[in-house]
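Sequence only, no structure available. Ideas?
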Amino acid sequence: MPISPSQGSTGGGTPVTITGVNLAGATAVHFDGKSATITGNTPTSVSVLSPAGTGAVGARVTTAGGTSGPLGFYYVQPPVVPTVSPASGAAAGGDTVTITGRNLATATSVDFGATPVVPTVVSDTEITVATPATAAGEVSLVVHTQGGVFDDLAFTFVDPPTVTVFTPITGTTLGGTLVDITGTDLATTTDVTFGGDSATSFAALSDDRITAVTPPHALGAVPVTVTTTGGSDSAPLTYLYVL
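Reply:
I predicted one. Tokens follow.
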């Protein structure tokens, strides 16, 4: 007789279905002596909620005709997730998020708000998932495994940035000029480039303002581009490197 699923939470309560023949009128289902709650019964199946337990156990069905042999069932520890990286991404979706922790090997779903996504299991300590398209804002992030649920997480979806103006508009080819950049959706800035070269340093002061220190660059006008977890945008004007 098959049992599905063959794994469940140590806390019990996992819906389990046992299929076979001559199962009508089942009077009990035990997981190594612990009674399961019967929720449905037909001549070919018994549905139950597993009791609490640990490790590998045998599930047995009892009817008026006797008791079946044991079916293997394994209790899985609930997941623990201390790290989600990155913790924000583009509202357009498609970003890869890495979730690390413990007891993740049986992960079946990761919910971003009301949207479930099937994860890729890398190991018992790591899963990855591609974000869905979602309106900007913070949503709950819930990891489902056969051992239980971890729901003490959040993920922030970010609209693409816009860069409107910066000052000063010129600086020396040696770099080192502090440039003040304003726009929208800048709080999650991950890079600022001048002509493709990353700023020596930058700081997001608010959602509409960042500062960046120019890198060395050859003479000429170059685009100023800001990249955030929501996307990238270049200022409408260029920055001019002078002697």
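Residues 27 and 173 are 84 Å apart (CA to CA).
Hope that gets you unstuck.
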